[in-house]
């Protein structure tokens, strides 16, 4: 339901006793990860408001909801995962530098895929590490340069 953005179904499920909003599929992907991956902002917000939702739970490959939202260029989803808002106090902030199995950060995924709005949003955070290198020694800058994303290269050089 989260993968497809079925908000009414998610609302019903969250209202039931015994429903684990952190349950994962065989690949370790949680409802929050699926919603973030597909840019379903309203589902992400619903899940984050639910008690006990863990925004940093990674799938089997180490990818987090923040990583997938950055990859897909889902700026609003990234904002929801990072914000510290009164309505979302039931959770801790998502780790902006959490890496996957290839040591890729959300910033490197956003830079590789040309998502300049997400890159700018992530760089506003003091704790972001733009020089973090993955297992191949690539940084957000080198991913952006490799894929011809001149705007992101300029942003990262500022």
Automatic annotation (TrEMBL):
<dbReference type="InterPro" id="IPR002110">
    <property type="entry name" value="Ankyrin_rpt"/>
</dbReference>
<dbReference type="InterPro" id="IPR036770">
    <property type="entry name" value="Ankyrin_rpt-contain_sf"/>
</dbReference>
<feature type="repeat" description="ANK">
    <location>
        <begin position="27"/>
        <end position="49"/>
    </location>
</feature>
<keyword id="KW-0040">ANK repeat</keyword>
<keyword id="KW-0677">Repeat</keyword>
<dbReference type="Pfam" id="PF12796">
    <property type="entry name" value="Ank_2"/>
</dbReference>
<feature type="repeat" description="ANK">
    <location>
        <begin position="61"/>
        <end position="93"/>
    </location>
</feature>
<protein>
    <submittedName>
        <fullName>Ankyrin</fullName>
    </submittedName>
</protein>
<feature type="repeat" description="ANK">
    <location>
        <begin position="136"/>
        <end position="158"/>
    </location>
</feature>
């Amino acid at each position: 339901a989260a993968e497809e953005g079925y908000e009414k179904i998610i609302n019903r499920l969250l209202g039931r006793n015994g429903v684990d909003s952190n349950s994962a599929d065989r690949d370790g992907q949680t409802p929050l990860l699926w919603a973030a991956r597909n840019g379903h902002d309203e589902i992400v917000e619903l899940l984050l408001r639910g008690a006990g939702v863990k925004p940093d739970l990674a799938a089997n490959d180490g990818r987090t909801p923040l990583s997938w939202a950055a990859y897909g260029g889902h700026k609003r989803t990234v904002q929801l995962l990072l914000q510290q808002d009164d309505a979302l106090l039931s959770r801790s902030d998502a780790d902006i530098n959490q890496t996957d199995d290839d040591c890729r950060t959300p910033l490197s995924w956003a830079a590789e895929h040309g998502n300049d709005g997400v890159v700018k949003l992530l760089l506003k955070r003091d704790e972001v590490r733009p020089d973090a290198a993955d297992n191949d020694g690539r940084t957000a800058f080198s991913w952006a340069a490799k894929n011809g994303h001149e705007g992101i290269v300029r942003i990262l050089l500022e």
